[in-house]
Structures are given as C-alpha cells and as structure tokens.
C-alpha cells in the first residue's frame, strides 16, 4: 500500500490502513518509561513495522539525551507552530525514527499540548506504529497523550509507592476515556515478590522486566545487548502489544 503522506523527502514510508498509537506513561519518574518506549519501538521495528517515537514529556524531554541524538528541530517548535513535524524527525544509527524535544524555554512556554493530536494524526498516516513517551503527574500535557492513544501502557517498579501511584494513574486514564492495556513492571530482581506485585497492581500485567545494569549501559538494549534477559523481556512486551492491537483492530472490523 502506498503511503498517504511523505514526511521527509527522499524517504518512502509505508502506511497501513490503520496505524496503532500507543502511549507509554508512568506515575513517577525513574521507573523506566522512556527506556521502555525506546526499546518497545526498537523491538517492533525489528520485525518489520515502521515506527516513530514521540517525546511528549514536554517539561523534561530526554529521549534525545538517552539516544545521544542531535535534534535541530524539536517537538516544542512543532507544537508552537514554528516547524512542521517532518522537520523534527531524526533517525538513529539503528534506524529508529524519533521526534524529540529541545531545551529552549521560549518554545517550552509556547508549545501547546492541544496541538499534539493533529501531530500524531499526521504521523499515523505514515507509520504503522506511533509510540508516545509522556511525562509523569497529571498535567494537561500528560492527559492529552492518554486520551488520544489507541492504548496506554503504564510503567511501574515493584515498590509499594510506585504500584499505588500507578493504580491511581490507571483511574485517571479511564477518566479521560483512555484505553489502559496494562502495566509493565521494571527493575525486577530475584528478590522481587512477584505474587505480591501481581496482587497489589490488580491490573493486567503485560510484562516483568529484569533489573540488568550491565545490559542498560547502552540504548536501545534490544539492539545493543540482544542476548540479555532484559532485551528478551522487551521483545516479549512488544509481541504482546502487537497482539493486543491486532485483536483491537479485528474487533473494530467486526463491529463495522
């Protein structure tokens, strides 16, 4: 199928009849939501899907920092109406497309989170999967990605406080008419009481990701440390999300 829109000259983007938009969120910083977004995107791309990661954590954008990217045009400029989305796409050495943020206070102030929806709609015309990395807390810029996504994935650690806050965030996702796919638990060790975590979360558990500092030295782990348990966990998570999205599309097709 031919792409419906060409975002960057000289590049052919394949489009699907219906793209999948997934938001990766978390109640607290440091749980690993950004790294999860990057690695899920990389794993999905590795099996043939066209993918773009959008850093919508407008206050503390860090996708570019983690991937050591030089982004001349930021998502802030796009949301401020100072640039087109095609200008903000940067491709990593591993082939992953990224729309990241900048550190200009001027554009941070002018960036309008409400403009994120048309930006995502444009990207969804050219990619099979759009993955949004969003911020923490309950600000407007966080709630917008929850409401516009086909599915929301929340990232938590095994700590009690993180789990409690994740459940509260899940309630917020529901209130903004978002679709919660489930929770991913990071930093799991041999000492983690998995049964306790399952019981406390009381939501669909999409995956348990091991705490592997050695594998985390470079990102994305699925590309740089593909044989690690952590990389395998990300690949399994990506497979689960693809399956859930395919099930959703099949159900939507049956309803029509």
TrEMBL record:
Organism: Halapricum salinum
Domain of life: Archaea
GO biological process: negative regulation of cell division
AAA domain span: 21-176
Cross-referenced SUPFAM superfamilies: P-loop containing nucleoside triphosphate hydrolases
Cellular component GO terms, alphabetical: cytoplasmic side of plasma membrane; cytosol
PANTHER family in alphabetical order: ATPASE INVOLVED IN CHROMOSOME PARTITIONING, PARA_MIND FAMILY, SEPTUM SITE-DETERMINING PROTEIN MIND HOMOLOG, CHLOROPLASTIC-RELATED
GO molecular function: ATP binding; ATP hydrolysis activity
Protein name, as recorded: MinD/ParA family protein
Annotated signal peptide: none
InterPro entries per the UniProt record, alphabetical: AAA_dom (IPR025669), P-loop_NTPase (IPR027417), ParA/MinD_ATPase (IPR050625)
């Amino acid at each position: 199928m031919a792409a419906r829109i060409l975002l960057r000259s000289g590049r052919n983007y394949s489009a699907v009849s219906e793209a999948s938009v997934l938001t990766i969120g978390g109640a607290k910083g440091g749980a690993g939501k950004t790294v999860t977004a990057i690695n899920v995107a990389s794993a999905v791309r590795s099996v043939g899907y066209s993918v773009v990661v959008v850093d919508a954590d407008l206050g503390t954008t860090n996708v570019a920092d983690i991937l050591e990217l030089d982004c001349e045009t930021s998502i802030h400029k796009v949301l401020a109406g100072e640039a087109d989305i095609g200008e903000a796409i940067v491709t990593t050495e591993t082939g992953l497309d990224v729309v990241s943020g900048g550190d200009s206070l001027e554009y941070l102030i002018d960036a309008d989170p409400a403009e994120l929806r048309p930006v995502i709609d444009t990207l969804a015309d050219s990619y099979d999967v759009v993955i949004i990395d969003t911020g923490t807390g309950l600000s407007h810029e966080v709630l917008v990605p929850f409401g516009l996504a086909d599915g929301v994935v929340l990232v938590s650690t095994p700590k009690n406080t993180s789990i409690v806050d994740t459940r509260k965030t899940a309630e917020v996702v529901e209130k903004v008419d978002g679709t919660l796919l489930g929770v991913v638990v990071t930093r799991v060790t041999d000492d983690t009481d998995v049964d306790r975590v399952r019981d406390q979360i009381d939501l669909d558990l999409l995956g348990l990701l091991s705490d592997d500092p050695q594998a985390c030295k470079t990102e994305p782990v699925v590309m740089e440390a593909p044989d690690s348990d952590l990389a395998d966990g990300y690949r399994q998570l990506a497979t689960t999300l693809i399956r859930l999205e395919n099930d959703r599309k099949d159900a939507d097709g049956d309803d029509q």
